[in-house]
Amino acid sequence: MKKIEAIIRPSKLDDLYTELRTSGFSGITVTEVRGYGTQKGHKEKYRGTEHNLDFVHKVKVELVCPDNKIEEAIRIIIEKNKTGKVGDGKIFVVPVETAIRIRTEESGESIV
Amino acid sequence: MKKIEAIIRPSKLDDLYTELRTSGFSGITVTEVRGYGTQKGHKEKYRGTEHNLDFVHKVKVELVCPDNKIEEAIRIIIEKNKTGKVGDGKIFVVPVETAIRIRTEESGESIV
Amino acid sequence: MKKIEAIIRPSKLDDLYTELRTSGFSGITVTEVRGYGTQKGHKEKYRGTEHNLDFVHKVKVELVCPDNKIEEAIRIIIEKNKTGKVGDGKIFVVPVETAIRIRTEESGESIV
Amino acid sequence: MSHDVVNSVSNNLFTINNLWMMIATALVFIMHLGFATLEVGLTQSKNTVNILFKNSVIPAIGIITYSIIGFDLMYPGSDFAGKIFGFSGFGIGTNAMGLTAKYNQGYTYWTDFLFQGMFAATAATIVSGAVAERIKLSTFLVFSAIFVAIAYPITGMWKWGGGFLDTMGFYDFAGSTLVHSVGGWAALMGVIFLGPRLGKYKKNRINAIPGHSMPLAVIGVFLLWLGWFGFNGGSVLSADPAEVSLVLVTTSLAASAGAIGAMLTSWVILKTPDITMLLNGILAGLVGITAGADLMNPVEAIMIGFISGIIVVGSVLFFDKIKLDDPVGALSVHLVVGIFGTLAVGIFGEKAGINQLWIQFKGVLAVGVFISIFSSALWFILKKSMGLRVTEEEELDGLDIGEHGMEAYPDFEKAV
Amino acid sequence: MSHDVVNSVSNNLFTINNLWMMIATALVFIMHLGFATLEVGLTQSKNTVNILFKNSVIPAIGIITYSIIGFDLMYPGSDFAGKIFGFSGFGIGTNAMGLTAKYNQGYTYWTDFLFQGMFAATAATIVSGAVAERIKLSTFLVFSAIFVAIAYPITGMWKWGGGFLDTMGFYDFAGSTLVHSVGGWAALMGVIFLGPRLGKYKKNRINAIPGHSMPLAVIGVFLLWLGWFGFNGGSVLSADPAEVSLVLVTTSLAASAGAIGAMLTSWVILKTPDITMLLNGILAGLVGITAGADLMNPVEAIMIGFISGIIVVGSVLFFDKIKLDDPVGALSVHLVVGIFGTLAVGIFGEKAGINQLWIQFKGVLAVGVFISIFSSALWFILKKSMGLRVTEEEELDGLDIGEHGMEAYPDFEKAV
Amino acid sequence: MSHDVVNSVSNNLFTINNLWMMIATALVFIMHLGFATLEVGLTQSKNTVNILFKNSVIPAIGIITYSIIGFDLMYPGSDFAGKIFGFSGFGIGTNAMGLTAKYNQGYTYWTDFLFQGMFAATAATIVSGAVAERIKLSTFLVFSAIFVAIAYPITGMWKWGGGFLDTMGFYDFAGSTLVHSVGGWAALMGVIFLGPRLGKYKKNRINAIPGHSMPLAVIGVFLLWLGWFGFNGGSVLSADPAEVSLVLVTTSLAASAGAIGAMLTSWVILKTPDITMLLNGILAGLVGITAGADLMNPVEAIMIGFISGIIVVGSVLFFDKIKLDDPVGALSVHLVVGIFGTLAVGIFGEKAGINQLWIQFKGVLAVGVFISIFSSALWFILKKSMGLRVTEEEELDGLDIGEHGMEAYPDFEKAV
Ligand SMILES: Nc1ncnc2c1ncn2[C@@H]1O[C@H](COP(=O)(O)OP(=O)(O)O)[C@@H](O)[C@H]1O
Ligand SMILES: Nc1ncnc2c1ncn2[C@@H]1O[C@H](COP(=O)(O)OP(=O)(O)O)[C@@H](O)[C@H]1O
Ligand SMILES: Nc1ncnc2c1ncn2[C@@H]1O[C@H](COP(=O)(O)OP(=O)(O)O)[C@@H](O)[C@H]1O
What we know:
CATH superfamily of chain D: Ammonium transporter AmtB like domains
Strand content of chain A: 35-45%
Radius of gyration of chain A: 17 Å
CATH topology of chain D: Ammonium transporter fold
Shape of chain D: globular
CATH architecture of chain D: Orthogonal Bundle
Radius of gyration of chain D: 21 Å
Helix content of chain D: 55-70%
Number of strands of chain A: 7
Number of helices of chain A: 2
Oligomer: heterohexamer
Strand content of chain D: under 5%
Largest interface: D-E, 64 and 64 residues
Shape of chain A: elongated
Distance between the termini of chain A: 9 Å
Bound molecules: adenosine-5'-diphosphate
Largest sheet of chain A: 4 strands, antiparallel
Order of helices and strands of chain A: EHEEEEHEE
Structural class of chain A: alpha+beta
Strand order of the largest sheet of chain D: 1-2
Largest sheet of chain D: 2 strands, antiparallel
Order of helices and strands of chain D: HHHHHHEEHHHHHHHH
Number of helices of chain D: 14
């Protein structure tokens, strides 16, 4: 079981989620984050002074899934987020040891 | 050492935290997240159009703890969050290699 | 490849980021979080009643980097955040199995 | 020609007076925005749409029902002088005379209706704040409509419509009792019938449920103070320079003293300068002076305001102690200080005296008893029929989602 | 001496009238803040600076251009009676007579200019709402300046400046057509030329793009209602007690009935009490009564308001159906209900009659045709020259960053 | 009888005048809300409660102290004509004559007090903006109380109370110097004594600290513009149609031209249309015209406003250059443009002339010297006794938590 963490553009979230659902992924968790990377934020100016140069609004999508579905999930994420322009984001895969559904106290790959 | 990530209902946070403290856990980190899962968000409607169907406010609780306290932590989380209704949330356990307290530069299980 | 998660004071973010950049780290992801730990939040009072005792604004900095740069990253984080006062925060290191740049579909240590 | 001139002169005065009354009407109107913003400021963001909805539709309901029945109940005409009830028939309308000084030297029939109608709706708005964050929208709207249409005008008639309180010598210049306490009693009954918000008093502890926007609360209080220029100033019922300007001075001094009284009390007792207490203090000063705004000199106005500011802080703490949950402090500001202000007419100023104090007390009592019974009965019936309270889940998720299916601030992340 | 007295008496009346007109001017002024807050409330937070900027500079542009050319186009003097165009020369200024009742018994030349100037700017503000969240700032400012300076005064002259619509017997008391529809037609053309916001209609589905702050929207509507006291009340052009007070009553009753009409319609059709519909309903009631505010009795005012409230909800849904994207409902409120209100003069009240209805219809048509052509031409030229729309990236990131390089709420986390 | 009629006629005029002055008072009152919202809008969310608290209590403190001592210092009576100091004894109060045209044909004693009292408090509010986000609450309140009670009335007396500046021929219609610069000088001294906010100027770089809510800032500026109708319009001290309407026109034209001047300057120099500069431009236009609002024709008013709009942008940049940290631009708007406006009386309009310019200059100087010395001394004493600045930790965490133990927006996630 692994957790995929994808940092993506906020405007892509809707389509990504729809596609994941359609492909049978049962859930994701989404966090608002600020990204600092190759892509630079817009020059902001306030009363003559520049600031906030490097930061960009992003969302982090977390998706825990069984090992055998990782490939597919990554494929979908790339497909739905790739524009080829700087700032498309990153996917990180992290190992997960246990997953438990609180409601039923079940655990294991079957619950994600 | 492991990190527990629990996605829970915001209204349960207070009680969970109180119980964790009482049981000797020294700290947690909490993030506002949006959950997409079996539980569906309320139908929202704006000027006649539905939207935001699937998303629910959740909080993610992150708790790093020594291996021998994982069981207890999970038990407390289940106890304080289980209502039996869809949307109680998930617990994920992730391995942690190092933990450092910045203030003292100490590291290892003792600091969490 | 590993992910460093550092929970730090919001006011330290600017300096930390500048230093990381200068040292050749290409990107970070930042999340607003609330910390519950040894450091206690200010006593807040509303119409005569105290509340919100334990919670403190923090930011979580996530930095994925090749194994050989972990040391340096940790050093920089400690350097830029250590005040010696309670609440300086924690650094957690978590293993990462894969990292992919969506834009180019490259993967591996080279992309972070 | 001389006769024409005399006529024109008195027409001019009529035009001036009426002009002031129309402006006062506009000022009282803007109090509804003041109530709306104050109330949302002091409550949680998840109930904001709901509260705004109530406060936006209340003036509409108030004005419409007042045009159908309220005005006719409140000012049934001189036949009902000294009585406890009167009704002059449904609807509004007038003849040519109603548009001249023969109707009243201070205003036309239309101005009269609109000024009074704006007042009427404020009574329901007062209730709104106290029962916020848990009451069902539909039930509240029915309550408001009936309350504004029937209960408010009946007690209003007792004094301003020439009823028995008027005959008795009861004095309530602009409505410490007739408007503020009337709203306050209905709010008290509502709070009792509804119970506190979930989580407010758990495990014998009082949990603060902080309001979500202090700027909105401040906007509300300033607009209310502004509106009070018309509320009290318009209650002179003419533009008489001496009287109106005195009333504006006593009103502003009392508001100022209320601010300072509440600030000091909060700083000393609570150890922090709580802005919500400061705001309640300003309103307390305003409510406190309302019954006798035309009877006080500056020093008396300052004293009334200052005492009101102290009272309101104590009262807020007291209601929390006895577990009556009033998110915005409406009970303290409108009911408690409304009563104090009414009694203050017997303590300070031109009419001060034990006799007057006794009459004031009887007036407070009469209105209190009637409104309490009326509103309890109404709350009770509504509880049994439509239900008073939203479901627990709805309350937790917020009434905005539950009742309206929308959010007040969809673009912003919420903290828990 | 008797002569002096007569003089003083009539001077007094002049002073009173002028006072009311100045206050009405201040009330109309505050409508600009109402439009600004309503419009930002009903749009996304990422476009807030942009919208505020437009709405803050429009009154400035409006007043300045009106002082240079607009006032002279709109009130060219009696030589142009019955005409379709007139111009009395650039700039404003007057002689001693312009400051006495000889200019007009209701106001001085200066008051006249300022009252009319405040009106003028509202027409451009109406456009602003409909084209929000995608139009280029510079283009919009050029459009507004030309529109307020030229188009608005020309049609205004047709009726209020004594032009051919006036001669024809067309009636439009305070501007259901001359202000609201004029803004509405220009907005309609703008919406057509611009196209919808990205993502509003994708895959044949209508996607809601919720406004980001309901409190701001409510503040806006209440300020607009307040401003309407001056907009309609000031359109009496004197402080005449009978007429002004009637107008305020019909205005408030219509607003109230509009609220209730829209609330019920929304509740029944959409199954939720949508606060934005309630707010649009209040405005619809106000726009609907504007053409005949002085001709209606209370019942007629309530009927007009109520129907306006129903119409506006249907109209909002309709424009979404035909994919004309109007973020704030300006087309429905100002254009559709503006037309209805104008026609209502032929259906309800003192002037009702098939004849009048026909004249009203012709007036609506004449203004509609002229403004549509004028504004289409202007939008077209601007599209070809400066460009109408911001880039796709700018629209996604928000115009605040794109056009202004700043954020409206830099301290808060955004949800997506 | 004829005598009666003459009496009634002049009474009517008195009633009209007094009515306008009371309305102007209400308009000036609402400026306090304008200052409050503008100031919180242009500062960080973590200091919002603190700023709102200050701005809510300042009018209260201002009105109360003015009733005790300020009014008596500012208008000590004709015995002190041409003097630099006078005092007519503590407290306010009047006899029957004070309520008739014998006191003043424009207003009653009470109206006089309240109008002037509302003015007084604005001077302290101006200071508040410049010292925001770092000053201790208690210290600021003490400063304000003393400043409003003593310093403001003394310089006020020099001109409006008939003191030496008046005798000298100094002209300051509604207070470019007597109100705005007075606040501005005290603010300048405060900024110098306090030093900049942490992090504002680090490593020789100017760091922007953006204001947290542009809608609040816009609400503030519109309310201030509205209030200026009373501030300048009321300074006519009667409802005289010719004069008041001219003043309203020059005021609005100057505000509009200020907006456009600042917009263009910001667009050209800073390459972005900065909304905060636009807002400062509107205020600059208003402050600039204030000294000579009754002396200018439309073209002159536009020129003064336009120049003020340009000046204010340059001034904001200049103060940042020399590291005087003024979060809201109060120094630029009120002090710099206040001086320009005062001098403008010698450059434009009816009184223009080198002689008048010299007198204006002397007036600016006299007031500047006195207020600078007075306020420096006061800031110095307070620094030594109570301390001026909050602790570093408190400043970083925000004064809301530090001084008030509460948050302005507890429901929302903060971005750093
Ligand atoms: N080493 C890293 N660790 C954590 N997050 C990163 C790292 N590098 C990039 N990111 C995140 O990914 C986002 C996109 O990366 P960026 O370098 O801007 O563009 P691209 O992915 O196209 O190369 C950044 O905004 C940041 O949030
Ligand atoms: N595979 C997953 N990966 C990440 N987060 C998940 C996953 N499945 C569920 N979640 C999170 O857990 C929350 C609760 O899950 P849900 O399926 O709604 O109810 P339940 O936990 O009762 O089955 C979701 O809102 C989402 O935030
Ligand atoms: N066991 C833990 N798991 C997750 N987060 C923790 C843990 N302990 C502390 N934290 C986070 O680190 C922050 C700082 O810790 P704290 O104990 O207050 O101070 P210090 O790091 O100086 O000991 C906390 O606010 C919390 O967000």
